[in-house]
Amino acid sequence: MHIQWYPGHMTKTKRMISENIKLVDLVIEIVDARLPESITNLDLRTLYKDNKRLILLNKVDLADDYYTRKWIEKLSDEDTIALGINARDGLNMKQVIPASLTVCKDRIERNKSRGLINKSIRAMIVGIPNVGKSTFINKLVGKANAKTGNKPGVTKGKQWINLKKGFELMDTPGMLWPKFEDQEIGKKLAMIGSIREEIIDLQSLAIEMIGFMATHYPKLLIAKYDIPDILTKDPADAFHDMTLYRHFLLPGAKPDYNKMAKVFYDEFKNGKLGKITLDRDL
Description:
This protein has helices at about 10-20, 40-45, 65-75, 95-105, 105-115, 135-140, 185-190, 200-215, 220-225, 235-245, 255-270; strands spanning about 25-30, 50-60, 80-85, 120-125, 160-165, 165-170, 250, 255. The chain is of the alpha/beta class. It folds into 2 domains: about 10-170, Rossmann fold, CATH 3.40.50; about 200-270, Conserved Hypothetical Protein Ylqf, Chain: A, domain 2. Helix 8 packs across helix 10, helix 8 crosses helix 11 and helix 10 (about 235-245) crosses helix 11.
């Protein structure tokens, strides 16, 4: 299974970020808490390497709590604060602006020394597709200013959004990198829904997911699919048995692998199997 997805608008996004990065004081980088390292767009980061950053590990409700804590520790440094959030239900959203002010403390003090006491802090929101940027903005602003959807590619252009708290936010479309040198990263991105589903071989991906869970989250797999010896089976054989276990059958009692792949993909992507972190090497 070879994964590659780089729509034309992503080239425009890179140009947009490059042209506007000098207008902002802070970059708010939103990542999926399940994939905080592999999800990092190094091509994108070169555009704002000199900016202060707030890294938000979104969807912490879907990620392994132990690894979320470890990643927050690792990603935080002098110029960066990392914070775990769940934009959908508002978890830790009240900490975002105070954390942003802390990161921008030097800029705020410099503005005050110049008499610019009420100058707004401008922040650019960046991230790859389907990490929850629009949901984050809507929760932060308090109303639906940005379109949202549980699929990649919803935001298509630059959006400036004013906050009453002295903040201006610039939203940008999700951006991937032109080529996945490491296809394992491409597979992980597909598992969390950052690759358009229509171009994915869901059966192959589901088998990869089963193998990952059997190795790293066996209890979660057994809790959902109580199949004898599922952990010792080849993932492809386990996928077959899981299809029969769910009674997904075509006429003639043939296994409906397409349905099973779609169901398991959705269960994994949406956290129905439990809290899972794909990036585990710290």
